[in-house]
Amino acid sequence: MLANIDLTVVWAFIIAFAVFAYIVMDGFDLGIGILFPAFQPGRERDTAMNSIAPVWDGNETWLVLGGGGLFAVFPLAYAVILPALYTPIIAMLLGLIFRGVAFEFRWRDPRHRALWDVAFTGGSVVAAFAQGITLGALLQGIKVEGRAYAGGWWDWLTPFSLLVGAGLVCGYALLGATWLVMRTEGSLQDRARRFSLWLGAATVAAIAAVSAATPFLNGPYGERWFTMPNVLLTAQVPLLVAVASFLFFRLLRSGAERSPFLLALGLFLLSFVGLGISIFPDIVPGRVTIWEAAAPYASQIFLLVGASVLIPIILIYTAYSYWVFRGKVDAAGYH
Amino acid sequence: MLANVDALLLARWQFGFTVAFHIVFPAFSIGLASYLAVLEGLWLATGRQVFIDLFRYWIKIFAIGFAMGVVSGLVMSYQFGTNWSVYADKTGPVLGPLMAYEVLSAFFLEAGFLGVMLFGMTKVGPRLHFLATLMVAIGTFFSAFWILSVNSWMQTPQGYAFNAAGQFVPADWWAIVFNPSFPYRLVHMVLAAYLTTALVVGAVGAWHLLRDRTNEGARTMFSMAMGMIAVVAPIQILAGDAHGLNTLEHQPTKVMAMEGHFQSHPDGAPLILFGLPDQEAGTVRYAVEVPKLSSLILKHGLNEPLKGLDTVPRENWPPVPVVFWSFRVMVSLGMLMLLLGVVSLFARFKGKLYEWAVLHRFALAMGPAGFVAVVAGWITTEVGRQPFTVYGLLRTAESASPLSAPAVAASLIAFVVIYFAVFGMGILYMLHLMAKSPHRGEHGIEPGAPIRTAGITPAPAVGSGRTLHLAE
């Protein structure tokens, strides 16, 4: 029974899930870091920070799980991708260190609070931009010879990867702004709503630009999107993006508080599905498939036993935690 | 050719630097989590105010240390891929799942209990809160369990096979997890974490005793820490000896480097106390040695033969001076810890534990000794494994990523600058907290502060009231 299930595909979906969980959960708190300088020091900044303070480090653990899972189950992909994207990945890690400690240190050291605010924003922007570059560089293709990366340490730097980087910064900022629309009141909420409007426009433009450029990259993308009968299915993705964007702007203008955030998440989900269509079943696009990169069955099943018990428990805890922290927040924390 | 050597060396420094920084935070967290559990347990059992005061005093310091452990650990989970990609590809099927279990157990611990432990006393009641504290202590132990299993497998690999691609693949998970050096390393490391924490707690107690001998909190923490050191230091020396004998059996080259034995000694090897090992010449200059003692320690016989590095091809030698000296730093500090334990016992016996300023100064000076000994011991075992990443099977030179030296150099500089700046500040904040004297009615995490690093679920901490600014 179990032998009929392809564990490699199962694990590809588990890791994709971990990555998406990371994007959803850390996306909005990175976004608040990106928008931070636009808020007034004092009340507004404290409120924005407090709305994410209880959840940020749990969010970040998904990134560790994604990296650890890749090492365990697709070691070849881990070994090819990380050296190829060396610079953006190291930059991301250092950015995350800065913003991670800023939560604790900002509170503990009020005399240097302005400095830790800069660290918080700088770290968030660098982390978001580097994640986008990582994705762009992966899509545009990396040079592989044998079982190793064979390019230089600046290969990732192209107009396309920078475009994806900038797009992701906009997208995370949009998640952050709509999160604040949902979670705050008064002047901060008004400001967040204005930001959401133009960040929404920028994000949709970025999705369109990246989608338009992707089929022209050196990869099998055009064929996966445009051949019959695939196209009947894949055409639904841009269609749904258009519907979600239309609803987003309409509801945002009408004063809705919760739906803009959910629709922004919807845009991310659709982009992620689009990404899946472009890449699957490769793990290093155009070079290595999930089956070529997979660890043997013995490794997959050993880890699956623990993961299938622990991941659902973690998810239940997470859902409970977000449920408890629903509602509005102010400078002193949640009420 | 030269460029490759440089990139390799830089990659080794980078790994050594980031892991040396990382290792001190978990070493402290493991010990402190257990100490907090003991304090809370004693408070529940006796109802004495001083125990809960000390619990609240130390939990603030624990929160900062834990946060720094999380962010420096994030870097470690990517270092294997960025700088050691060939190693990652080859060992991933065996070591990847063990590391993933480490992540999952740390994850699980954060998910369930950290938020409750840090912020939840008033919400869940003392007994459930004590359970959360216990679970955090157990969780830190499980993290250590998995990561040390990985490390030990690199030292004493077994239970594997090779596939067509040249990867290590699992053949027997039980043999992999419980490889020969693992039990010794686990005991040695966990005891080291306890000692490190006891030395820090003892030094903080001593600092406040030197200023005010009547401070009840300072007296209690000093007494507990000295008691712990008096018990654990001798056990640790025995555990270290057993670990050494295990190393002699499985990694004799490492022991040769630790002992500085370039030559074989067919009829009893001397114990070299000090000297300057010269790797090129293959000799220890200015050696001060005790005849036959090394054979007595390692083989339990004065005339037992011991082989030297002259029986090992030169390309398989570890860097002897580094291993030789780091080993001596660790052992000397261990002996000083033993001395501190003995002196404190004597003072206790005389009823002068809180009076002897000399003892307090000694304890204060020994505050950082645990961290130094942990890093020195780690250097001994990891550099002693060289020139292999997987002992005897995979060479370090064949493990590194195909990166150019400038890439590795640039990232190394960035790590050094940022780690010193960021973690330097963090350590400074911890020292600030330690400089405040413990007092009656100690606050927990500050009243009015929002919940910060609380793990994935701070929710149970706040319960139905959803008020985040708890004063405990």
Describe this protein's structure.
The complex is a heterodimer of chains A (335) and B (472). With 335 residues, chain A is mostly helical. Chain A is 75% helix and 4% strand. Chain A has 14 helices and six strands. Chain A has helices at 7-35, 43-50, 56-73, 75-84, 86-108, 113-140, 159-183, 186-213, 221-226, 230-234, 236-253, 259-279, 290-293, 297-324; strands at residues 144-145, 148-149, 282-284, 288-289, 329-330, 333-334. In chain A, strands 1-2 form a two-stranded antiparallel ribbon. Chain A has a two-stranded antiparallel ribbon with strand order 3-4. A two-stranded antiparallel ribbon of chain A has the order 5-6. In chain A, strand 3 and strand 4 form a beta hairpin. In chain A, helix 6 (113-140) packs across helix 7 (159-183) and helix 7 runs antiparallel to helix 12 (259-279). Chain A is globular. The termini of chain A are far apart. The mean pLDDT of chain A is 85. Chain B is mainly alpha-helical and 472 residues long. Helix content of chain B is 69%, strand content 6%. Chain B has 15 helices and six strands. Chain B has helices spanning 2-46, 49-83, 85-119, 121-124, 126-155, 173-177, 182-211, 216-250, 252-259, 293-299, 320-350, 357-365, 369-383, 405-435, 459-462, and strands at residues 160-162, 168-170, 271-278, 283-290, 388-390, 394-395. In chain B, the strands form three sheets. Chain B has a two-stranded antiparallel sheet. In chain B, helix 1 (2-46) packs across helix 7 (182-211), helix 9 (252-259) packs across helix 11 (320-350) and helix 11 packs antiparallel against helix 13. Chains A and B meet through helix 3, helix 4, helix 5, strand 2 and helix 14 of A and helix 2, helix 3 and helix 14 of B.
